[in-house]
Design brief:
Elements: H1 4-15, E1 22-28, E2 34-36, H2 39-46, E3 49-57, E4 60-65, E5 69-74, E6 80-84, E7 88-91, H3 94-97, H4 99-105, E8 108-111, H5 125-128, E9 133-139, E10 144-148, E11 155-160, H6 164-167, H7 182-189, H8 196-201, H9 211-220, H10 234-253, E12 294-298, E13 301-305
Parallel strand pairs: 2-11
Antiparallel strand pairs: 1-3, 1-9, 3-4, 4-5, 5-11, 6-10, 7-8, 9-10, 12-13
Helix pairs in contact: 1-10, 7-10, 9-10
Length: 315
């Protein structure tokens, strides 16, 4: 699942590419991708809206539109965004020739000879046939902003701007904001008896952390993922705060963590996986103490830690 660094990296790419552009209309190929409002209203209201700003809220990508509206995009497990230059044609013939395959794959996109590809882009005809596009935003300048999602878990919603509290209910403070600090984290963990990793994943204590960066942050802070959240000392909470900021910042700098399907706006993989200390490193030696990294399952999530550095103490 794309976490804060992957969403932030894409947001920065979009900010430099589409702000000021108008969405001419939207094509929806999997109706359940639209979570709010109902489809007909969504299509009507999103058309001919200028993109005024690009933001991020936790794991949500946010496009502010004229008319005091915003689009929220939650990519969930396999969602990606691709920005196609003008000249890519859309092929929906599969809808008529093979409806079963269409429900899985969606349309294909074909690059014409006139396409001016973005330098360094990994777009190709072969890739375009396997994008699993669920929504296509046609921009007034001829470009297409695609939302692709093989597993179909992601959701796109359109809201009035004064409903932001409703749209992002339960999303905690932004960990890279100046308002987030160890004191705030201490208050968020107080009275929470669940394992610290579960609390971090729940999004209420801090926004944007998922399985990858929670493992990495806990490792930097030398905290076992099964420790009760309310058992952490002030020193440990300070280290955890620093770890969270550190791993998220590093993830953004390296374009996000690509170990499966995550790609950036141009179809490129991030290289942050090369900088993992514990995540999916089970069986390898810890870089600090030399112990073998272990993997357990916590709340149905693979969880990685060093038993030498992250001892499970009882408080």
């Amino acid at each position: 699942m794309p976490e804060l660094p992957e969403v932030e990296y894409t947001a920065r790419q979009l900010r430099s590419s589409v702000v000021g552009t108008t969405i001419r209309d939207a094509l929806v190929f999997w109706e359940r991708t639209i979570g709010h409002p109902e489809l007909a209203t969504f299509l009507l209201k999103v058309a001919d809206r200028r993109i005024e700003a690009i933001r991020r809220r936790g794991k949500y990508l946010v496009l502010d539109l004229e008319g005091d509206l915003f689009l929220s995009i939650h990519r969930r497990m396999t969602g990606n965004l691709f920005l196609l230059p003008a000249g890519w044609e859309i092929d929906t013939s599969l809808r008529e020739t093979d409806p079963v395959a269409w429900s899985t794959r969606g349309p294909s996109f074909l690059a014409t000879s006139a396409v001016d590809l973005v330098e360094g882009s990994s777009y190709s005809v072969d890739l375009a046939k396997t994008w699993y596009c669920r929504v296509c935003f046609n921009l007034a300048d001829g470009r297409r902003l695609l939302y692709t999602d093989p597993r179909k878990f992601g959701r796109i919603e359109l809201w009035p701007r004064d409903c932001e509290a409703v749209a992002f209910k339960g999303v905690g403070p932004e960990p890279l904001s100046t308002a987030f600090n160890a004191k705030q984290l201490t208050q968020a963990l107080a009275g929470r008896k669940s394992a610290i990793k579960q609390v971090l994943l729940a999004q209420e204590a801090v926004a944007g952390l998922g399985n990858i960066y929670a493992d990495e942050a806990l490792y930097l802070a030398s905290i076992h993922p099964l420790r009760r959240a309310d058992s952490l000392s002030p020193t440990e909470i300070e280290l955890l705060y620093q770890g969270i900021v550190s791993v998220l910042t590093l993830g953004i700098e390296h374009g996000g963590t690509s170990f499966s399907g995550y790609r950036d706006l141009w179809g490129e993989a991030g290289d942050n996986y090369d900088h993992m200390k514990v995540y999916q490193q089970d069986g390898k030696r810890c870089l600090r103490c030399g112990a073998l990294i272990e993997r357990i399952v916590l709340a149905q999530r693979g969880t990685h830690f060093c038993p030498g550095c992250q001892k499970l103490t009882v408080e």
